[in-house]
């Protein structure tokens, strides 16, 4: 994993983990995260970004995407999800709802308008967060090679057994409907050689293509598709230009 320099804090500190009651230790641990200012010459995203890595990754996994797309004057926020990087590792609590709640705990320190991006499991966490925060905070969502369907046969009883069980035995196929009703534009990027999004779901998602929902294919397998940074960022630039800014102009 490539090492990236720490950035100076340029956002206000979150209200948590200050004690909820005077003299009481709240014992709330917040996610380790980097806040990266948009780079001169970069751009494509219409504003600030929140980028979520997949299982086994950390806050640096989507750094090349944020560096390429976050415009000058905005920020890209890269957290390490619970049990990843330097973030806390509780003994239990690995539902997608737990991961999303961790983001909410420092959400007050994030920019008011956000463009969410998530790879693999981080894409599901981003989708749940987008539904929860809704269009008052979330302006768009990009999901990179993550299924919304239940696949109980993919559950593995390893060190991630709880998270695996709660992910693969529950169907999240209603999330695209909710996102559409909330007016949040969505781009799903499916890796061509991946089995994470199976053929029947690919067909269903492709049929949803509309002004606010887009599905496209990128090269590679689930494990190596992030290496195609230029292809991913090109598809995202087109999505932001054609969909997100059009939504803004008509709102």
Terminal CA distance: 41 Å
Classify the secondary structure makeup into a structural class.
Answer: alpha/beta
In DSSP terms, counting alpha (H) and pi (I) runs of 4 or more, how many helices? 7
Q: What value does the average pLDDT take?
A: 88
Q: What is the strand tally? A: 7
Helix-strand sequence: EEHEHEHEHHEHEH
**Which percent band covers the strand fraction?**
15-25%
Low-confidence stretches: none
Largest sheet composition: 7 strands, mixed
Report on the structure:
- The chain has a seven-stranded mixed beta sheet, sandwiched between helices.
- The protein has seven helices and seven strands.
- Helix 6 links the parallel strand 6 and strand 7.
- By secondary structure, the protein is of the alpha/beta class.
- The radius of gyration is 17 Å and the shape is globular.
- The protein is 31% helix and 16% strand.
What layout of secondary structure does this protein have?
Blueprint: E1 33-37, E2 49-52, H1 63-69, E3 75-79, H2 96-105, E4 114-119, H3 121-133, E5 138-144, H4 161-168, H5 175-182, E6 186-191, H6 199-207, E7 213-218, H7 229-250
Parallel strand pairs: 2-3, 2-4, 4-5, 5-6, 6-7
Antiparallel strand pairs: 1-3
Helix pairs in contact: 1-7, 2-3, 3-5
Short synopsis of the structure:
The chain is an alpha/beta fold. It is 31% helix and 16% strand. The protein has seven helices and seven strands.
Keywords for this entry:
16% strand, seven-stranded mixed sheet, 7 helices, 251 residues, alpha/beta
């Amino acid at each position: 994993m490539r090492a990236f320099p720490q950035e100076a804090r340029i956002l206000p500190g979150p209200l948590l983990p200050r004690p909820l009651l005077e003299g009481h230790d709240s014992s709330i641990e917040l996610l380790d995260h980097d806040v990266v200012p948009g780079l001169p010459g970069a751009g494509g995203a219409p504003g600030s970004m929140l980028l979520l890595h997949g299982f086994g990754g950390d806050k640096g996994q989507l750094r090349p995407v944020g560096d390429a797309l976050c415009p000058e004057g905005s920020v890209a926020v890269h957290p390490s999800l619970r049990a990843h990087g330097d973030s806390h590792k509780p003994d239990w609590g690995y539902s997608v709802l737990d991961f999303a709640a961790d983001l909410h705990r420092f959400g007050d320190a994030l920019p008011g308008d956000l463009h969410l991006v998530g790879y693999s499991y981080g894409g599901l966490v981003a989708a749940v967060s987008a539904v929860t925060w809704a269009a008052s905070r979330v302006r768009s969502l990009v999901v990179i090679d993550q299924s919304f369907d239940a696949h109980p046969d993919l559950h593995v009883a390893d060190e991630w057994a709880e998270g695996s069980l709660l992910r693969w035995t529950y169907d999240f196929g209603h999330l695209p409907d909710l996102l559409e009703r909330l007016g949040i534009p969505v781009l799903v990027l499916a890796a061509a050689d991946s089995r994470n999004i199976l053929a029947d779901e690919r067909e269903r998602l492709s049929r949803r293509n509309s002004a606010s929902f887009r599905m496209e294919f990128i090269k590679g397998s689930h494990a190596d598709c992030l290496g195609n940074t230029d292809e991913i960022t090109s598809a995202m630039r087109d999505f932001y230009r054609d969909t997100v800014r059009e939504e803004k102009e008509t709102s």
